[in-house]
Amino acid sequence: MARQGISRSTLPWIAPFNLGMPAAIWTIFIISVVTIFSGWPVFRNGEWNTADFFSNYLPIGWFIIFFVGYKFWFKTTYVRLDEVISALLVCSDK
After folding, report:
1. How far apart are the first and last CA of the chain?
2. How far apart are CA 63 and CA 55, in angstroms?
3. Can you tell me whether residue 68 is helix, strand or coil?
4. Cβ contacts of 48 within 8 Å, gap of 6 or more
5. 53, 39 in Cβ contact below 8 A?
6. Strand, helix or coil for residue 76
7. Quick one: pLDDT band at residue 75, thresholds 50, 70, 90?
């Protein structure tokens, strides 16, 4: 909201423990670590199981393929943070 020049104190309600961007980055980091290491036991010596490997790591590839495919197929673009409010106002007028 700082990019749009709007103070959080002007909002009708403010979350008492809102940690903002650092909490979001920390959450993405933790989810990435859990995702990568959730199938780690298949890499231990003598524990290889092809079905477990694919069930743990194939969804990562699916996510990338579906995300890139969606962006390509629907030709969507990223909206810069300072343009978000104006983009929302344009969408709400339709």
Report:
1. 24
2. 13
3. helix
4. 42
5. yes
6. coil
7. very high
> For 2-10, what is the mean pLDDT?
76
For residue 15, the SS3 value is: coil
Tell me the CA distances in angstroms from 10 to 5, 13, 23, 25, one per residue in order.
Answer: 11, 9, 22, 25
Phi, psi of 27 (to 5 degrees): -65, -45
* Tokens matching residue 19: 């940690």
- Indicate the helix (H) or strand (E) that contains 74: helix 50-74
What the block records as the tokens of 36 is 């990568």
Contact assessment for residue 53 and residue 42, using Cβ atoms and an 8 Å cutoff: yes
Cα separation of 36 and 56, whole Å? 8
Domain locations in the chain as residue ranges: 19-92
Whole-prediction pTM: 0.67
CB 63 within 8 A of CB 55: no
Look up tokens 């700082």; give the residue: 2
Q: How confident is the model at residue 34 (pLDDT cuts 50, 70, 90)?
A: very high
